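We were asked to recover a plausible sequence for a given structure. The inputs and outputs are reproduced exactly as logged, with field labels preserved.

PROBLEM: sequence recovery
POSITIONS: 298
GIVEN STRUCTURE:
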């Protein structure tokens, strides 16, 4: 009988202890993606003025995806429930303890964004309403820039072939190809000194080259195929954002294939690595480098 009393007493004590642990659990630790905007979360609403279905988050998301079942969706009751949240949110409530930034582009990119301080509640501005593509907790003071926009300005361009992105050409592509159109301004992406310049001419055998070396980074950024500006000279210092060329097809078979090849090489390098017919990559993947320079690869 004495033994049974000890067992019963221990069980009551354990129950009491467990109850106290559960009672002190904070709302933030209990928060999850359940369509309820709880303390510690950042929440999107499908409608303006914090109405409609809710999608709640406890951390940053770089890409929401656009199709079920893989997309982040609105989970709460009301208008919009079950819809993917990308380009579908109208208002927010930041119940986290950190500033959250909503971006127009995926991967925390683009020049259009809106910051919400802890506790802030309200509508997305007109440029972001139903145009939300990512959000970031505790963002840096300056968001990264779409690299094709930095290269061309005026609305940017598009990546036509990524690093090591050949599909129909034998070899390993050593840079990234961007396209906007013949004659488009081409802007320098990283400040440095022009250490090599070949003006070339239109057509397959007329390759043009601009090599810009940044000594502090010990990197050379090489631009191919576009027509260097007449004022550009070897030894010249060029700044970030400076126009250095006009998009062309120098070293390319036809004007329909005009593009700017941008290649990052380690050290002081005058020439681009061989790509066509070469099975070996000589350059590292440049993604981390471009991110470190404040660019998104879009």
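RECOVERED SEQUENCE:
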């Amino acid at each position: 009988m004495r033994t049974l009393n000890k067992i019963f007493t221990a069980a009551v004590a354990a129950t009491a202890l467990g109850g106290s642990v559960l009672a002190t659990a904070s709302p933030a630790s209990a928060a999850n993606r359940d369509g309820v905007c709880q303390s510690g979360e950042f929440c999107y609403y499908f409608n303006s003025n914090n109405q409609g279905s809710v999608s709640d988050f406890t951390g940053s998301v770089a890409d929401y995806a656009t199709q079920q079942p893989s997309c982040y969706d609105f989970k709460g009751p009301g208008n919009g429930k079950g819809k993917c949240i990308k380009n579908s949110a109208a208002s927010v409530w930041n119940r986290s303890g950190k500033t959250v930034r909503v971006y127009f582009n995926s991967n925390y990119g683009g020049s259009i964004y809106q910051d919400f301080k802890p506790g802030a509640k309200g509508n997305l501005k007109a440029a972001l309403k139903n145009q939300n593509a990512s959000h970031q907790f505790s963002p840096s003071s300056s968001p990264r820039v779409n690299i094709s926009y930095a290269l061309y300005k005026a609305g940017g361009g598009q990546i036509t072939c990524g690093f090591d992105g050949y599909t129909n050409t034998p070899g390993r592509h050593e840079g990234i190809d961007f396209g906007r159109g013949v004659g488009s301004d081409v802007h320098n992406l990283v400040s440095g000194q022009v250490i090599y310049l070949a003006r070339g001419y239109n057509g397959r055998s007329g390759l043009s080259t601009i090599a810009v070396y940044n000594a502090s980074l010990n990197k050379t950024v090489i631009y191919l195929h576009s027509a260097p500006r007449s004022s550009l000279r070897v030894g010249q210092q060029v700044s970030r954002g400076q126009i250095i060329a006009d998009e062309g097809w120098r070293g390319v078979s036809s004007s329909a294939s005009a593009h700017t090849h941008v290649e990052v090489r380690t050290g002081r390098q005058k020439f681009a690595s061989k790509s066509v017919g070469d099975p070996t990559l000589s350059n590292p993947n440049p993604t981390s480098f471009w991110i470190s320079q404040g660019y998104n690869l879009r």
